[in-house]
Amino acid sequence: MYTFKCKQCGKEVTLPYYKKRSCCSYECAHASYKKPLPSPRLCACGCGAIIIRKNYKKTQPQSFVKNHHLRGKRNPNWNNGRIETSHGHIFIYKPEHPNANKAGYVGEHRFVMSEHIGRPIASNENVHHINGIPNDNRLKNLILMTRSEHTSYHHKGLMKPNSLKNLIHGNNRFIIKARSLSHPR
Question: What is the pLDDT averaged over residues 83-109?
Answer without folding.
Answer: 93
